[in-house]
Amino acid sequence: MSVFEILMLLCFGAAWPFSIYKSYTSRSVKGKSPIFLLVLMSGYVFGILNKLFYHYDHVIFLYMLNLVMISTDFGLYLRNKKLGEEC
After folding, report:
1. CA distance 26 to 20
2. What is the dihedral of CA 41, 44, 45, 46, to 10 degrees?
3. pLDDT in tens, 16-33
4. What is the pLDDT of residue 7?
5. How far apart (Å, rounded) are the C-alpha atoms in residues 58 and 36?
6. DSSP states of 3-67 as a string?
7. Start-to-end C-alpha separation, the chain
8. Phi and psi, residue 43, nearest 5°
9. Fewer CB within 10 Å of terminal CB in the chain, N or C?
10. CA distances from 21 to 17, 28, 57, 82, 86 (A)
11. CA 42, CA 34: separation in Å to the nearest integer?
């Protein structure tokens, strides 16, 4: 288990609650890129697969937590896009 990997995941993960809150309250897709979110989600899936198949340790839970947060933000993007189309 690498302390630097843990710190990287904690730093990346620290930003997502703010992004989720902004997406939820703004009800807007302005400034959001679904492609960017999908690329990040893919990266975390590949990180999880690496942990499962090659280097399993408890850091996998940080990958999963970050994936859940990004997926939540992506879900809010889809919701907000639909809300914007209804206007």
Report:
1. 10
2. 120
3. 999 999 999 999 999 999
4. 95
5. 27
6. HHHHHHHHHHHHHHHHHHHHHHHH---TT--HHHHHHHHHHHHHHHHHHHHT---TTHHHHHHHH
7. 49
8. -60, -40
9. C
10. 6, 12, 30, 18, 22
11. 12
> Which H or E element spans position 1?
none
d(CA 58, CA 71): 21
- Reading the block at residue 71, the tokens are 């997926």
Distance, in Å, from the CA atom of 35 to the CA atom of 25, rounded to the nearest integer, reads: 22
pLDDT of residue 83 exceeding 70, the answer is yes
Tokens of 79: 């919701």
| C-alpha to C-alpha distance for 16 and 8, rounded to whole angstroms | 13
Four-CA torsion 83, 38, 13, 69, nearest 10 degrees: 50
